[in-house]
Design a protein that fits this description.
Chain lengths: 492, 275
């Protein structure tokens, strides 16, 4: 065999062997590829399954995310500088614990509308404070809300209780709009573009009972609203917000008599009372009309925290009616006469006796011109601390000076009552935000009453339809009724 | 009274100073700004070794929520703060918040590189993303269904695009909402019939469309010149938000961002100087 032939045969043999080896490798690779492909398909199948599960879970989570549950508790320790002088009545104790507010709210933020129900535990026990539904346009510029809700008036009424820097809203607000809630329909207008981003408007028609548990019992309705504005100066980190509000409630009186310091309904002027009285006031219509103005100035000037100055003013005519429920009997027989004052006794305690009459008749209706305002300074110090100072005044009867209140007339009785005395208050407070949930607060309220010239004036309490003579209060001097409050708030 | 105020304020101020001392600066918010904020943080920390800056994303809404609840020192946002968010700052911190414009960005409309469409009017973009136009042939393309990619609703880009391009209308129901701009770009690059939007800095492997203000004006492509001049119709500022006026290291960091050096980093990342 020639060398070349042998070489060719050797190459052929080697090549054949190499081809055979390559074929084996290819087959192996193909098998591996098939295996990888199968595994990839399996992984893809699993991924598709996971994605499907994810989409199902996401759809469920998205639905659940529309439901919001929130809660709040404000637990307090109060220490009064004197007993039995505070509105809430401490009794014989100077210190007490109480839960000012315990709230649970469930809300649903749905398509073109929302819903909320809120239950509160407080001094009045367990009560419903919010229950409303609303609808709105797709651009969220117009919203109508029906049900039990905040009244659309002023600034502090709509301000969240959990965010309040002071322990309570102002004296004026508490006396004129106690509870802040009513039943009715409220329209909200806002638009976050152009000029309209600087203004907002809300207005409502409501029952006017200021108590969502009370059924409406007269045809008069409340018309109220607020036009708000904001004027930011971004370059200076400064903004002034404010608003003007109006409230008008027509009330049908169920009482025999009306003591009218505003001469709203006419009648006979009784100089002894410095008021007009109406002899037969049953079914008379009275108007509670309050005008409000509010302003908030925000400054980001100090390096350690923001500063806010707030002020709000209420003025108008207030109508106070003790028990104005629907009639339960024959008016001509049940409403016989109002309270009679006699002059037979010397002591103040015996000077006023009450006949046993229908409570709706014995409780008088009062029309008084009112005026109240507050100014609050809030200074944040770092993220955690907040210092607060507020000064406020409330005069529930601007027609009656303190010197006149309590003087006695043998025929017409006493002029005014403790309900006509004006008040001022200084509140100092420190808030510490321990976390996003916990806020600790310490506050001291210095409450100053208007004094009378008469030394022996009884505390004529007309709130519950009775002329009470106890507790006796000498309103000729400043009453020692300051209050120290420590509060823990937890909210989620 | 003065003594009482001094007694109250002194420990409060001291406690506040102790609490704020020696902590890292935390930045959270806009996904559009994550890369930019990271570059700023890296460059600043390199120059100031004693300073620690932590940057996370999550979306502008997430960052601003974190600012309100105290979980971050600085929120990054690719949209202005909403009035509802500012109201929360007012209530909790007695503050309007402090806004710092750090850079400018053009929101780019992306399509696949194989898509023959080169420009769209603002009206066409709106009608595509609201679902009124559903086929590419209606805007000069091939006969194919348009696949929409959007951001999720916690994104500042999502909000800005909805408010300024869609004029407040909702996105089409079939739009797919992606967790980040990078995800939108990735999806669009692989799908020849798709369209998406996002920051100009992310436009890699996709085609950026020229945008016409209306049918009679020429299309404008997003670039440094057109975005800075305002000729490109979909441009916006990128913001930092703080609860209060910055102090100490935070102030030094923000001041540095606004220097030529800080602004040059914005340019390198793909954005444009704020001024």
């Amino acid at each position: 065999m020639k060398k070349s032939t042998a070489l060719a045969l050797a190459i052929a043999a080697l090549t054949g062997s190499a081809f055979a080896q390559d074929a084996a490798k290819v087959a192996l690779l193909e098998a591996k590829l098939d295996s990888v492909s199968e595994k990839t398909d399996a992984v893809k199948g699993k991924l598709d399954g996971i994605e499907e599960n994810y989409l199902e879970t996401k759809a469920t989570v998205d639905k659940l995310a529309k439901i919001k549950v929130s809660g709040l508790i404000q637990a307090r320790m109060e220490y009064a500088t004197d007993t039995a002088q505070l509105d809430a009545g401490f009794g014989a104790n100077q210190a007490r614990f109480k839960v000012r507010r315990g709230r649970l709210k469930v809300a649903h933020d749905g398509t073109l509308g929302d819903y909320a129900v809120q239950v509160q535990y407080g001094e009045k026990g367990i009560e419903l404070v919010d229950m409303y539904g609303s609808f709105q346009d797709p651009w969220k510029t117009v919203k109508v809300r029906l049900g039990a809700q905040d009244i659309p008036f002023g600034y502090e009424i709509g301000y969240s209780s959990s965010m309040m820097e002071t322990m309570e809203r102002s004296l004026a607000e508490q006396k004129l709009f106690n509870g802040e809630k009513d039943l009715g329909a409220v329209l909200f207008l806002s638009y976050d573009k152009d000029f309209f981003q600087y203004v907002d408007f809300k207005a409502g028609v409501m029952n006017g009972q200021m108590n969502i548990k009370t059924q409406e019992n007269d045809e008069g309705k409340t018309f109220l609203g607020r036009l708000g504005f904001k004027a930011p100066i971004k370059d200076l980190n400064f903004e002034i917000d404010g608003g003007a509000s109006y409230y008008m409630n027509e009330l049908t009186v169920r009482n025999k008599s009306v003591v009218d310091y505003d001469n709203q309904v006419g009648g006979t002027k009784e100089t002894a009372k410095i008021a007009y009285t109406v002899a037969n006031a049953v079914d008379l219509k009275l108007e509670k009309t309050i005008i409000g103005a509010d302003m908030q100035a925000y400054f980001n000037i100090l390096p350690f925290g923001g500063t806010v100055l707030r002020g709000e003013m209420y003025t108008g005519t207030n109508v106070s009616v003790a028990n104005n429920g629907p009639y339960t009997g024959d008016i001509s027989t049940t409403v016989s006469y109002n309270t009679t004052y006699t002059t037979t006794a010397d002591t103040a305690k015996k000077a006023y006796t009450t006949k046993s009459v229908d409570p709706k008749a014995s409780a008088g209706a009062y029309v008084r011109p009112v005026m109240g305002w507050y100014g609050t300074l809030i200074q944040n110090v770092g993220d955690a601390f907040q210092v607060v100072a507020r000064y406020e005044q409330f005069d529930p009867n601007t027609e009656l000076e303190g010197s006149a209140i309590g003087s006695h007339n043998s025929v017409k009785g006493v002029i005014g009552s403790a309900d006509d005395l004006s008040w001022s208050q200084i509140s100092l407070g420190l808030n510490y935000f321990l976390s996003g949930n916990v806020k600790l607060s310490l506050a001291y309220d210095i409450k100053v009453n208007e004094t009378t010239s008469a030394a022996n004036v009884v505390n004529l309490n007309t709130k519950d339809g009775k002329n009470t003579t106890t507790p006796r209060t000498d309103w000729s001097k400043e009453i020692d009724n300051n209050l120290l409050t420590a509060q823990l708030q937890y909210k989620f | 009274m003065k003594k009482l105020l001094a007694t109250i304020l002194t420990p409060v101020l001291l406690a506040s100073m102790v609490v704020n001392a020696g902590q890292a600066i935390t930045i959270k918010g806009s996904d559009t700004m994550v890369i930019l904020a990271q570059r700023w943080a890296e460059a600043y920390m390199a120059k100031h070794p004693g300073t620690t800056i932590q940057v996370t994303g999550g979306g502008s809404g997430t960052g601003l929520a974190a600012l309100v609840n105290g979980a971050t020192d600085i929120a990054t946002s690719s949209r202005p703060m909403k009035s509802s968010e500012m109201n929360q700052l007012k209530e909790r911190y007695a503050s309007l918040g402090v806004e710092v414009k750090t850079a400018k960005d053009g929101i780019t409309v992306y399509v696949s590189e194989s898509n023959p469409v080169k420009e769209l009017t603002m009206d066409q973009v709106r009608e595509i993303f609201t679902g009124k136009i559903t086929n590419w042939k209606d805007v000069g393309g091939k006969d194919a269904k348009i696949i929409l990619y959007s951001r999720e609703n916690n994104s500042g880009t999502y909000v800005y695009f909805r408010d300024n391009v869609l004029k407040g209308k909702d996105y089409a129901a079939n739009a797919q909402h992606m967790p980040g701009t990078a995800a939108v770009v990735n999806a669009v690059s692989k799908d020849p019939n798709s369209i998406g939007y996002g920051g100009a800095a992310y436009a890699k492997g996709v085609k950026e469309l020229a945008i016409k203000k209306n049918a009679s004006t020429p299309g404008v492509v997003p670039n440094a010149e057109t975005i800075k001049s305002g000729a490109y119709p979909i441009s916006r500022y990128l913001y930092l938000y703080l609860r209060n006026r910055p102090t100490g290291e935070t102030k030094a960091f923000i001041d540095w961002i606004l220097t030529a050096e800080g602004q040059s980093i914005a340019t390198k990342v793909g954005y444009f100087p704020a001024k």
